[in-house]
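Section 5: illustrative case.
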C-alpha cells in the first residue's frame, strides 16, 4: 500500500470511529488523558535519552522545557475538563422570549497535528492534550529531523491508543503532502511561516479551520533605566536555551547607547557563568539540529562585527553564543541607512533560530517602536525598562505575547494564551485555550412550544411594536 492509500485509510477509519460519538464522553476523555500521563511517565527516561541524541539537550533542560510542560498540561485538563465542557447559559433578549439560549462545546472531529523538531516532544504532545480534552481524534506528524524523539513518541502512541482514535505517521515531504491533501476537520501546525502558508493554502481548499503557531523575529529592547544585571542574565538565558532554537527566543537586541557597553559585559559574564568559558564542554549547551541549519547560521557571522563568540565546530554542529554588532540608529538619517542595510543582511530578515544575537544601538525609544511596528508582527516582544515606558511599548507595538523585564516565561504560565499574530501565527492554545482551539462553540436556542408570538410572521402589521421590543 502506498503512502497516499495508507493515509486515506487512517483518516477514513478515524472518521468512522469519531462518528460513533465515543470520544464525546467526558469519562472517555479523562481516561485517555490519564493513559497518556502514565505513558509519558513510563517512557520519561527514553525521552530524555532521545532529546540528548537529537539536540544534546541535558536532562534538566529537557524536564523543564519538554516533559514537565506536557505533564502540567495533562494535569490541568484532567482537573478542569468537566468545567470547561459544561454548556454555558447565555442571555436571551426580550423579543425572543420565552426561549432559552446556551453554548455547547463539541469536538471538531478528526484533527491533524504537525510538530517541529526544536521541542519535538513538547510541541507534539501539548496540542494532543487539547485534542483529547475536546473529544477529537488525531493524526500526529512529527518532524523527521528529531528522529530519536520521534521513535519514542511513536512507541508511546502505538502502545497507548487505538490507531482508529489517535495515531502517528512519520516521513518527509511526501507524507506532509499526502496528509495535507486529506480533508481534516481541524489542523494544528507548529513550524516556520513558509510552511505555515503551505498548510493554510491546503486547508483553504476544504475550508478547514487552522491554528498556526509560527515564529518570526522577536525583538528584545533594553532601555537606559533598566536593571542591567537582571536584563543581561535573563536575555542570555532566553537566547541560549536549546541553543537559541526556540520560536520565542529573543531574535535581535535593541539597546540604548548609554547602557550598551555595560550590558554586553554583563551578558558575556553570565554566558560564561552558565556554561563556562568553553561552552562546547558544557553538558547544558545544546547543538544545532542538522548540517543545513548549521550552515545557515554560520553564514550570518560575516554580516556584522563579532564582539563575542563566533567559535564553531561543524562535526558537532556547535555554535558558540555570539554577539553580533550591527551598529546604531541614533538619527532619522541613521535609521534610514540601517533599514537600507537590512535588505542585504539576512540576519535581520530571517528568523535566526540559533545562538546568534544581533545588536542594534538606539538613543530614542520612540524610534524603536516605529522600527518594530513597520516589521512583520512578532511572536514575542521583550522589554527591559520602567513601567511608564513599558506601557508605551505595549501601546505602540503588536506581538503574540510580551514579557516585561524577562524573556520566554510568558509561555510557562498556563493561564496565559499562547500564539502569534499576523505572520507569527493565528489561534491560541495552552490550558483552556487548547480545549477551545479543538472545539466548535455551538450556539443553541430552544424555543417554547406553549407560546408563539404571531407578530414575527408576515404581513408584519405590528412593526411599530417589534421596533420597540428590539
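Designed sequence:
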Amino acid at each position: 500500500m502506498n503512502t497516499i492509500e495508507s493515509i486515506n485509510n487512517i483518516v477514513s477509519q478515524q472518521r468512522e470511529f469519531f462518528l460513533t460519538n465515543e470520544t464525546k464522553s467526558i469519562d472517555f476523555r479523562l481516561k485517555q488523558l490519564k493513559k497518556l500521563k502514565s505513558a509519558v511517565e513510563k517512557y520519561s527516561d527514553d525521552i530524555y535519552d532521545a532529546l540528548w541524541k537529537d539536540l544534546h539537550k541535558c536532562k534538566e533542560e529537557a524536564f523543564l522545557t519538554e516533559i514537565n510542560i506536557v505533564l502540567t498540561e495533562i494535569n490541568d485538563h484532567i482537573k478542569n475538563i468537566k468545567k470547561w465542557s459544561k454548556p454555558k447559559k447565555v442571555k436571551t433578549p426580550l423579543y425572543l422570549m420565552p426561549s432559552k439560549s446556551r453554548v455547547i462545546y463539541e469536538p471538531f472531529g478528526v484533527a491533524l497535528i504537525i510538530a517541529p523538531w526544536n521541542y519535538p516532544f513538547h510541541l507534539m504532545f501539548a496540542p494532543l492534550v487539547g485534542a483529547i480534552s475536546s473529544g477529537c481524534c488525531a493524526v500526529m506528524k512529527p518532524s523527521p529531523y528529531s528522529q530519536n524523539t520521534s521513535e519514542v513518541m511513536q512507541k508511546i502512541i502505538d502502545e497507548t491508543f487505538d490507531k482508529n482514535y489517535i495515531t502517528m505517521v512519520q516521513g518527509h515531504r511526501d507524507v506532509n503532502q499526502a496528509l495535507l491533501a486529506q480533508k481534516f476537520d481541524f489542523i494544528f501546525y507548529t513550524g516556520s511561516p513558509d510552511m505555515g502558508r503551505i498548510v493554510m493554502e491546503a486547508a483553504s481548499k476544504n475550508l478547514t479551520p487552522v491554528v498556526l503557531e509560527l515564529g518570526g523575529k522577536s525583538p528584545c529592547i533594553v532601555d537606559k533605566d533598566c536593571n542591567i544585571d537582571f536584563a543581561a542574565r535573563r536575555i542570555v538565558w532566553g537566547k541560549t536555551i536549546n541553543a537559541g532554537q526556540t520560536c520565542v527566543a529573543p531574535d535581535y537586541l535593541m539597546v540604548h547607547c548609554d547602557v550598551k557597553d555595560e550590558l554586553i559585559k554583563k551578558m558575556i559574564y553570565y554566558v560564561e557563568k552558565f556554561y563556562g568559558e568553553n561552552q562546547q564542554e558544557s553538558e547544558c549547551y545544546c547543538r544545532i539540529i542538522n548540517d543545513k541549519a548549521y550552515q545557515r547560521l554560520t553564514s550570518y557571522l560575516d554580516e556584522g562585527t563579532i564582539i563575542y563568540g563566533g567559535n564553531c565546530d561543524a562535526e558537532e554542529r556547535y555554535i558558540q553564543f555570539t554577539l553580533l554588532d550591527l551598529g546604531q540608529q541614533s538619527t532619522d538619517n541613521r535609521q534610514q541607512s540601517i533599514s537600507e542595510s537590512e535588505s542585504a543582511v539576512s540576519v535581520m530578515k530571517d528568523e535566526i533560530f540559533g545562538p546568534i544575537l544581533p545588536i542594534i544601538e538606539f538613543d530614542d525609544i520612540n524610534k524603536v517602536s516605529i522600527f518594530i511596528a513597520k516589521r512583520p508582527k512578532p511572536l514575542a516582544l521583550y522589554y527591559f525598562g520602567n513601567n511608564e515606558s513599558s506601557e508605551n511599548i505595549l501601546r505602540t507595538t503588536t506581538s503574540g505575547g510580551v514579557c516585561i523585564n524577562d524573556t520566554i516565561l510568558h509561555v510557562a504560565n498556563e493561564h496565559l494564551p499562547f500564539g502569534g499574530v499576523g505572520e507569527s501565527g493565528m489561534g491560541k492554545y495552552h490550558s483552556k485555550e487548547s480545549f477551545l482551539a479543538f472545539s466548535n462553540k455551538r450556539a443553541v436556542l430552544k424555543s417554547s412550544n406553549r407560546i408563539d408570538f404571531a407578530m414575527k410572521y408576515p404581513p408584519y402589521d405590528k412593526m411599530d411594536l417589534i421596533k420597540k421590543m428590539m
